[in-house]
Amino acid sequence: MSENANIAVAGKKTYIAEIIKVVAAALIFSLLLVLLSAFVIKFFNVPSGAVPVINQIIRTLSIFTGCMIFLRSPGCGWLRGIITGISYSLLAFVLFSLLGGGFSWNITLLNNTAIGAAAGLVSGIISMLVRRN
How far apart are CA 36 and CA 18, in angstroms? Predict the structure, then answer.
């Protein structure tokens, strides 16, 4: 293998490791924010109609925070962001379904995945722009 091919393989491994770190951090951050929001909802009598909006804000914030902290390698920020957003959305669905006691396959999963991909796209682009400057 040539030296350029070795660099390309090393770069792909770095990208994969960064995506795994972002998803793990976003899941941990989400768990903490969901716990915090549960206390806020309970103590301040937040209407139940606001809960889905709060959940989407938590998801988006988690993806953004993870991307800003762990996406460091230059290049393809948009693609790594999309992959991160989709991976996070699917793993968050599994995690929160397990914690909630059951899986519910409906259009919400598709909506959450699409919003996760969009949040990842924007977060990946912003993290690359911040790193460049």
Answer: 27
For 57-97, how does the pLDDT look when each residue is reduced to its tens digit (9 = 90+)? 999 999 999 999 998 888 888 999 999 999 999 999 999 88
DSSP reduced 3-state for 125: helix
Q: DSSP assignment of 8-53, as one string?
A: HHHHHHHHHHHHHHHHHHHHHHHHHHHHHHHHHHHHHT--GGGHHH
pTM score: 0.86
Alpha carbon distance 78, 92 (integer Å) = 21
CA distance 12 to 3: 14
**Closest C-alpha among 56, 73, 90, 89 to residue 124:** 73
